């Protein structure tokens, strides 16, 4: 069975993505309480006891807050960069695997490539997953699409891509000026236009699934994101928009 993936939720109130191949399932980030994580995973037909590992992209609470409690309760190994581990005191973890932002590693039969990204975190990384001839990219929480990012995420079969904000909504929205500068800066989050530009440059005809994710509830809307990404979405077999409450259900990459 090729890669399949689903989301517990996507946004500033909590994030978590499941990536599975065969009998193995990984959880990327956990920004929810144990009870909420268990509830959201049950909706997707998975128990935390079935997880092979938790991977962490960076230390912001909407990605990290639930990692250590879940890992301790279920005895799960946690993979993260040294900078992310040292950025916050998250307490004791059952098993820690330190990763580097350029060195692939494997969890069971899933190969994982961490990709360093510009974000206002100590040592942030996003991930490309490969298994049985299929590839999935998770690319959120970065302020700039660098050539390094384009090199790693330009040929995936499926992609979860951030379109966090509309610049005009951000400028006119309720955030204080300092937060507006952070979100819209080079180490913040991708705008709808930046996401569309990335897809235009790397092409998306090879994508079976495009999931537009981490859409701000205050500085963006699905309608605006959909309109900005319309040209790219028309060339993808399946384009969906993730939400904070429901995330998205299981999607599977089909390979010959």
Please explain how this structure is put together.
The strands form 2 sheets. The chain has a 7-stranded mixed sheet with strand order 6-5-4-3-2-1-14. A 7-stranded mixed sheet has the order 7-8-9-10-11-12-13. A hairpin with a 2-residue loop joins strand 9 (125-131) and strand 10. The chain is of the alpha/beta class and 256 residues long. The protein has helices at residues 34-43, 61-64, 67-74, 82-87, 147-153, 167-172, 177-184, 192-202, 222-228, 230-233; strands at 4-9, 16-21, 24-28, 53-55, 77-80, 95-98, 105-107, 110-116, 125-131, 134-139, 158-162, 209-213, 238-241, 248-252. It contains 10 helices and 14 strands.
What's this, in brief?
This protein is of the alpha/beta class.
Keywords:
single chain, 256 residues, alpha/beta, seven-stranded mixed beta sheet, 10 helices, 14 strands, 28% helix, globular
Secondary-structure map with pairings?
Blueprint: E1 4-9, E2 16-21, E3 24-28, H1 34-43, E4 53-55, H2 61-64, H3 67-74, E5 77-80, H4 82-87, E6 95-98, E7 105-107, E8 110-116, E9 125-131, E10 134-139, H5 147-153, E11 158-162, H6 167-172, H7 177-184, H8 192-202, E12 209-213, H9 222-228, H10 230-233, E13 238-241, E14 248-252
Parallel strand pairs: 3-4, 4-5, 5-6, 10-11, 11-12, 12-13
Antiparallel strand pairs: 1-2, 1-14, 2-3, 7-8, 8-9, 9-10
Backbone CA Rg: 17 Å
SS-derived structural category: alpha/beta
Global outline: globular
Give the low-pLDDT segments: none
Strand order of the largest sheet: 6-5-4-3-2-1-14
What is the count of β-strands? 14
Give the N-terminus to C-terminus distance in angstroms. 11 Å
Mean pLDDT: 96
**Share of helical residues:** 25-40%
Mind summarizing the main beta sheet?
7 strands, mixed
Q: What percent strand?
A: 25-35%
Count up the helices: 10
Order of helices and strands: EEEHEHHEHEEEEEHEHHHEHHEE
């Amino acid at each position: 069975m090729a890669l399949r993936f689903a989301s517990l939720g996507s946004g500033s109130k909590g994030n978590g993505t499941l990536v599975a191949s065969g009998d193995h399932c990984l959880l990327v980030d956990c920004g929810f309480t144990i009870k909420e994580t268990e509830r959201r995973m049950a909706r997707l037909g998975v128990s935390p006891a079935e997880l092979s590992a938790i991977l962490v992209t960076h230390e912001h609470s909407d990605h990290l807050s639930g990692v250590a409690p879940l890992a301790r309760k279920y005895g799960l190994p946690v993979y993260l960069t040294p900078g992310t581990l040292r950025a916050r005191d998250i307490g004791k973890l059952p098993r820690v695997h330190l990763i580097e932002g350029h060195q692939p590693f494997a969890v069971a039969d899933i190969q994982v490539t961490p990709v360093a990204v510009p974000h206002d975190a100590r040592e942030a990384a996003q991930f490309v997953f490969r298994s049985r001839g299929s590839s999935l990219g998770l690319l959120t929480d970065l302020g700039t699409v660098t050539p390094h990012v384009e090199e790693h995420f330009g040929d995936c079969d499926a992609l979860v891509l951030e379109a966090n904000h509309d610049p005009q909504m951000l400028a006119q929205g309720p955030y204080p000026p300092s937060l507006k500068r952070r979100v819209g800066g080079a180490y913040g989050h991708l705008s709808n236009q930046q996401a569309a530009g990335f897809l235009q440059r790397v092409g998306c005809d090879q994508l079976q699934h495009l999931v537009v994710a981490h859409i701000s509830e205050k500085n963006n809307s699905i309608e605006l994101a959909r309109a900005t990404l319309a040209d790219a979405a028309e060339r993808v077999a399946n384009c969906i928009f993730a939400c904070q409450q429901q995330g998205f259900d299981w999607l599977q990459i089909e390979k010959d």
